[in-house]
Amino acid sequence: MKTKTPSYHRHRFPSEIISHAVWLYHRFCLSFREVEELLAERDITVTYETIHHWCRKLAPAYAR
After folding, report:
1. Of 9, 22, 23, 49, which sits with the fewest C-beta atoms within 10 Å of its C-beta?
2. Taking the model in full, what pTM does it have?
3. Residue spans of beta strands (DSSP E) within 1-64
4. Distance between CA 44 and CA 40 in Å, rounded?
5. CA dihedral 39, 41, 44, 46 (to 10 degrees)
6. CA distances in angstroms from 1 to 4, 7, 25, 29, 60, listed in the order given
7. Which long-range contacts (CB under 8 A, 24 or more apart) does 4-8 make?
8. What is the reported pLDDT for 2?
């Protein structure tokens, strides 16, 4: 069975940051704003709306 990898085409941030943000949100049941704050502590400026978009778009592919 083939698993489809998520596409990071046309995203501003590297795939490592995107996958880490989605992982934080789902693994620790954090809010989007809490994930935004955790990334800000690492000097990564991203809005909670962007994290929400990533989670809606990429989480199903990660779950497979």
Report:
1. 9
2. 0.82
3. none
4. 5
5. 50
6. 10, 19, 28, 30, 16
7. 4/61, 4/64, 5/61, 6/57, 6/58, 6/61, 6/62
8. 60
Q: How far is CA 43 from CA 1, 17, 33, 34, 56, in A?
A: 39, 12, 15, 14, 24
- Whole-number Å distance between alpha carbons of 17 and 58: 13
Torsional class of 61: left (φ above 0), alpha (ψ -120 to 50), beta (otherwise)? alpha
What gap in Å lies between CA 16 and CA 41, rounded to an integer? 16
Domain ranges within the chain, ordered by starting residue? 15-63
pLDDT per residue as tens, the chain (64 positions): 565 667 777 788 999 999 999 999 999 999 999 999 999 999 999 999 999 999 999 888 887 7
